[in-house]
Amino acid sequence: MRLTRYTDYGLRVLLYLGMKREGLSTIPEIAARYGISENHLTKIVHELGQLGHVRTVRGRNGGLALGRPAAEINLGALVRQLENDLSLVECFEVGNNCPITGDCRLQKVLGKALAAFLGVLDEVTLADLLAQPAGMMRMLGLGEAPTTPVA
User: Fold this and answer.
1) What are the sequence ranges of the domains in the chain?
2) How far apart are CA 57 and CA 99, in angstroms?
3) Strand, helix or coil at 57?
């Protein structure tokens, strides 16, 4: 299973916003810290905003912040929202053309594997990933980690 860059970058945005608890962040700031495209991040942030994960403030002093507490952002749900296709192989798709679909055991095994993958993510929230952010904060140049845990 491989997540798209879209989902990867979405997770990174949320991690960044979770670590930078005070003040607003900007797309150029986040893009520069991760070395990724501002244009690509703009699309991702737009969707994260529509989903309620990111709050956007327009205007000269605008920016981004988490749209809900980190403890309410479940990774399994987020991956399901951002990934447009979790079909691991053709037989997962409607109208597939694989001639052995009806009797192949691979589909069932891969289905269980996907369910297990998502099941692990369902047990994790953004707050869990931010429990000890000091190392990530240093790498991103965000200064000292806060002493209170993320909600």
Assistant:
1) 5-139
2) 52
3) strand
Q: Cβ(25)–Cβ(17) under 8 Å?
A: yes
pTM of the model: 0.85
Give CA 57 to chain center in angstroms. Answer: 20
* pLDDT at residue 147, as a whole number: 53
The model's pLDDT over 57-98, given as tens digits with 9 standing for 90+, comes to: 998 889 999 999 999 999 999 999 999 887 766 667 677 777
Q: Is 95 left (phi over 0), alpha (psi -120 to 50) or beta?
A: left
Q: Which two tokens stand for residue 78?
A: 């987020």
Tokens for 13, please give them: 């945005």
Lowest mean pLDDT among 26-40, 49-63, 96-110: 96-110
Give the Cβ contact number of residue 117 at 10 Å. 16
Calpha distance 6→18 (Å, rounded): 18
User: Which CATH class, in words, describes the domain spanning 5-139?
Assistant: mainly alpha
